Amino acid sequence: MTTPAAQEFLRRAAEKSADLTHRQIIRRGIEHYDAAFHRGQARFLNWEAARQQCHEIKWEGVNHLDRYLLEFEKRVKERGGHVFWAADAEEARNYVASLAARHGVRRVVKSKSMVTEEIHLSPALEKMGIEVFETDLGEFIVQLRNEPPYHIVTPAMHLTRVQIAALFREKLGDVAGDDPPELVATARRALRRAFFSAEMGITGANFLVADAGLIAITTNEGNARLCVSLPRIHVAVTGIEKVIPRLQDLAVLWPTLATSGTGQAITTYNTLVGGPRRPGEPDGPEEFHVVLLDNGRSELLADVEQRDVLYCIRCGACLNACPVFRNVGGHTYGTTYQGPIGSVLTPHLRGLAEFEHLSYASSLCGACTSVCPVKIELHHHLLHTRRNAVRAGTRPFGERLAFRAWRWAMLGAGRFELFGRVARALLRAAYALGLEGSVLDPMRPWTRNRAAPPIPRASFRELWRKANGRN
Amino acid sequence: MVLARLLLWVYNVEPMPPRVALFIPCFVDQLGPQVGQDMVRVLRRIGCEVDFPQEQTCCGQPAFNTGYWADAAPLAEHFLKVFTSAEVIVCPSGSCTTMVRNFYPELLRGSPLRAEAAALGQRVFEFSEFLVRVANVKDVGACFPHRVTYHDSCHTLRELRLREEPRELLRHVRGLELVEMPCSDECCGFGGTFSTKYGMISAAMGDGKAENIETSQAEFVTATDSSCLMHIEGILRRRKARARTIHLASILAQEAS
Amino acid sequence: MGATENPSRERILERIRAAVQSPAPRQPAAAPDGRAIFSPVGDALERFQSECAANLTECLVTSDNTASAATIEGVLASLPPGELFVQDAPELRRMARAWQAGRGMRWSSEGGPGEASQATLTLAEVLVAATGSILVSASCGGRGASVVAPCHIVLARLEQLVPDLETAMARVYERGTAFRNSFMGLITGSSRTADIEKLLVIGAHGPRRLVVVVQRADE
């Protein structure tokens, strides 16, 4: 473990792996999801065909990204909207900040957007004295706790109702009991004033529709709908990879996203907006801005092997399927994006050397790949990232040496057998002395966490030769 | 017994199982030889002749999985050399079979040996896959009167796409009561070097698996991979659980006493 | 936006163009078996009604204008007192005359609904049978009309009902609805959240109650 990020990860993972209360809460949440997902999947006549079609739609969009982004931009401008291409987080932040400053914005209402987390937009606006209100309930809760989101789809799944009630009592002062409908009503009351007084609404976008010049935003609560209806200015911050060719594509993308995300047939509010309000429309923003964020995505695009990572529709299914995630939880990763997609994406967005450890913190079980609705080869990419890390020369010296020695030992049957014999003899002697599980145990990295296997006296090949002779 | 089977094949016009070369994973060879011996017993019981090419060492998976492809490639080349003339290769491990069939072509991309690796991959089989799909045998004459639950090893399930084959074999074992545990396809937590690099996560995952085994009330948990079973056994022993692990080959090798 | 106002635009486009010179491989389809993705929709109205029941949309079928007016009046009577926000459309103007003036009304020609609006009443663009959804646009009373008030009532005609999402999206594209409006919204059920312990709660920021009146005949 070399980098500080890797050490922090290890420390948090150890802590969370031992936390049985945390494990129970997450397990219950994921069991709920699993049941809902299976019901949702059963509604499809042909789920595999849905995955294949979503894969092909994203393939088309990402592999012709320039064409579809240009078409999208053209149509948004025809609607009177603005499109800004931001090379990195700083450019994106500055654009939104100067827009807010120009318009004297004091208050912002935000719907859930992982991209705005990625660029740390809220702190930048708050530093300017702007009040930023997260309106998605889960985001609202973690914002009050001063915590990052725990999960890209359900940001507060690590908290119980009792904890949330206590939080609301402390920060909002306005709560009677701790049953969920009351808590939801409390949040609604708290945010109502913000919705009606905010000058700017900031959202993300689930999809950018090229042939219509519209952005698509999905929520169950209706908070994004309010963010794009009431404030004077609407800014959508989105990754460049979100563009899809046709409005028609949503007919399969919306149900598949909903099923993978929450097990629903379709999410309650699927909103399509493009441009400011048109003359004659009763309401809507006077200005509409789309910030297209690169921030490392064009580099990932150039990596043909891992380009499909850009197909991600941020459904969260891979997080829910991952046995590592359900044991360490979302805060252990220390990154904007958690779980398998986070482990694959983060090295590309933030650097291989600092985040390669995330791809090693996996058993490569492949559950993620099997649930991904757009067929990203997630677990194979974890392997590819490991290979890239080794090629970049950032692995610990001891490990490199160990594999060099291992290779030498394995390249000859005679050497292999000799090492095997010596190792077994050593272990048998050590265990005969009762050293199993102790600090002197040669297999300590193993026995720290589980019992050692019995060490056999003879290997298979020795037994074979005895029974069948040498070939 | 063997004669009866030969006659069955003759009358059903089934092809005789060819000469089988044994691919014994390095850790089975050194730490779990019984599994290899049990597989040999079963293969001979159904009428196969078995060979053990003794120059074999390791398929290279540990290095490959840790990202050390330059160190794994020579081992792949060595493997090809050792098994070049084998018609059929059988292996008591889904993960090692996966390494050869699914990953050798990628590991050797750009090498002149790539085509040979791809061809070899078509001739390597995991043990239960060989029995059910190649030899067309589901009943190997085994007897194991115990309550048994099956753990789906990740590579066997998701890379080789074998789910029913091991279960079919178990269903034909006399006296064996096959019960499904909750989430049989959830990873046990072994994951190669992951088991020591991130031991506490690995152990937590193993705990989850152990709980599911306990829920099934099985006396034995079995799988196609000794690596999973070694890890699960280690967890069960620390928990002082009742259940014990046993490799699929070892169950199939048991006969009525 | 000129190049000087957005210097990164060309650079990003250049990087994208260079990258997509080599296409990525596509995943093969898993054993295609010829089955369609979604199960076929039989009787559209029946399907729409059962989907609405599942997603907690109140679906009321009426025979004509008179019946619709009466039905809507009935729904309004069940609501707490307060302002009604109505899409300023000729058929809704006509219908409103028939109701008791016990309730203040605000028309969409005056602006969007406010916090005082207890309920909103709008038309729709399309109804979708397969999912029990209602597609509205800015032409249906604006953006806030379908989300601000605790109750949203939709008046639609049976001929607006289409079998599935594919047909719905094709219709709004081909008829130009997607281009004449700055906003469209697909609504499926009432506002909800499962952010607390994954337990479903109805009525977050949007309407708790969604009522759709499906009128068989045009008159």
Describe what this molecule looks like in 3D.
The complex is a heterotrimer of chains A (471), B (257) and C (219). By secondary structure, chain A is an alpha/beta fold. Helix content of chain A is 54%, strand content 10%. Chain A has helices spanning 4-17, 20-43, 47-63, 65-78, 89-102, 114-118, 121-127, 137-144, 161-171, 180-197, 223-229, 250-262, 297-302, 317-321, 325-328, 339-350, 352-355, 357-360, 367-371, 378-392, 397-410, 413-432, 444-447, 460-468, and strands at residues 82-86, 107-110, 131-134, 200-203, 207-209, 214-219, 233-239, 243-244, 269-273, 287-293. A six-stranded parallel β-sheet of chain A has the order 1-10-7-4-2-3, sandwiched between helices. Chain A is elongated and about 95 Å long. By secondary structure, chain B is an alpha/beta fold. Chain B has two domains: 16-133, Rossmann fold (3-Layer(aba) Sandwich); 139-253, Rossmann fold. Chain B is 52% helix and 11% strand. Chain B has a four-stranded parallel β-sheet with strand order 2-1-3-4. Chain B has a four-stranded parallel β-sheet with strand order 6-5-7-8, with helices on both faces. In chain B, α8 packs across α10 and α12 packs across α13. Chain B is globular and about 50 Å long. Chain C has 219 residues and is α/β, with parallel strands linked by helices. Chain C has helices at 8-19, 44-55, 65-77, 90-98, 165-174, 177-180; strands at 57-62, 83-86, 105-107, 117-122, 126-128, 133-137, 151-157, 161-162, 183-187, 192-193, 201-202, 209-215. Chains A and C meet through α2, α3, α4, β1 and α8 of A and α1, α5, α6, β9 and β10 of C.
